[in-house]
Specification:
The protein is of the alpha/beta class. The chain is built from 4 helices and 18 strands. The chain folds into 2 domains: 156 residues, Rossmann fold (3-Layer(aba) Sandwich); 123 residues, Coagulation Factor XIII, Chain A, domain 1.
Length: 314
């Protein structure tokens, strides 16, 4: 073994027993206070345990977030969020360098929140939680489980958030006013975090100040860079609201499955005449997140299945 922790304690770590072999790339993940910071500092020889032993073979190199990225050969290279500031090209170059270290028999221990990078480069993931090794093993399996745990926490947090309306742009003649715009999760509660694939709602409430003949209520979802993802309205969905009088309030709920990839989105809402004349139009009025327990790229989460043939008849 290149490095071994024998019954090691250094708060919050408690009686940690784990070892990494030579020529392995290990990813260390966990939330703040999980013990990841102490783990990598002990591995790099920067900290000493309160009890137990840290046994390391050969030379050790510890690199923190502000250190020059020295990926030259060593027995053990510890990267304590040392990749966090790298641009895409630099990160790709670091992956090649780490592969070379592994091929030369070095062990690399990486603490990082860059989960796709860890999935690509690591042989094994160590998931720390509350000072203990919660799980270790195949990067795909462990990272998906970790993302699932983070998703649970994120969704619980999302249901405690109440975002006020802050449109990037607002227009209209004032015959109607959007008084509420909410994103509703699968639980039926307002939430600014949706899970990819769950059934969700957008709830729009409009109060009318003047007589309006058959208003149309609509919504539009955009990515954080302004790309229009999906939009619809009551007219397109063949729902008539009918004439409204001063003081009338209308609530519309748009119900759909959130087949979006994880990321940040905004929500636009409008009340307008069938010819498009706006009563109240609020661009990018509400921000929300889409999360998932697995990594996907892009915008539309198509949830593909894959079949592989290892031999193709000639």
């Amino acid at each position: 073994m290149c490095i071994e922790f024998r019954n090691v304690s250094l708060a919050p770590l408690r009686g940690l027993n784990v070892a990494a072999p030579r020529g392995a790339v290990i990813g260390a993940i966990g939330e703040k206070g999980s013990g990841v910071a102490e783990l990598v500092r002990l591995a790099g020889g920067v900290s000493k345990p309160e009890s137990g032993q840290v046994i390391a073979e050969g030379t050790r190199r510890y690199l923190g977030p502000l250190d020059r990225l020295d990926l030259s050969p060593a027995g053990l290279v510890v990267l304590d969020h040392a990749l966090a500031q790298l641009a895409a090209l630099e990160l790709a170059q670091a992956e090649v360098a780490i592969d070379r270290l592994r091929a030369a028999g070095a062990t690399v221990l990486i603490a990082s929140h860059q989960l796709p990078f860890l999935r690509s480069v690591c042989d094994e993931i160590w998931w720390m939680e509350a000072g203990e090794l919660a799980r270790r093993g195949d990067p795909g399996v462990v990272l998906d489980a970790y993302r699932g745990r983070v998703l649970e926490q994120l969704r619980a947090w999302g249901e405690t958030q109440r975002d006020s309306l802050h449109p990037a742009m607002r227009k209209g003649d004032g015959r109607g006013e959007i008084v509420s715009l909410e994103t509703i999760g699968a639980s039926g509660q307002p939430s600014m975090v949706w899970q990819s694939g769950e059934w969700v709602k957008v709830r729009v409430i409009v109060r009318y100040r003047e007589h309006v003949d058959d208003p149309v209520l609509g919504i539009l979802i955009r990515t954080r860079v302004g790309f229009a993802v999906y939009g619809t309205n009551t007219e397109l969905e063949k729902v008539r609201i009918g004439s409204r009088e001063p003081g009338d309030t209308v609530q519309a709920e748009f119900h759909f499955r959130c087949d979006l990839c994880p990321g940040a989105y905004t929500l636009t809402a409008a009340s307008h005449d069938p010819d498009g004349a706006a009563h109240d139009w609020m661009d990018d009025a509400v921000a929300f997140l889409v999360a998932d327990s697995r990594y996907t790229a892009g915008v539309a989460n198509l949830k593909a299945s894959v079949k592989v043939a290892t031999s193709i008849p000639g």
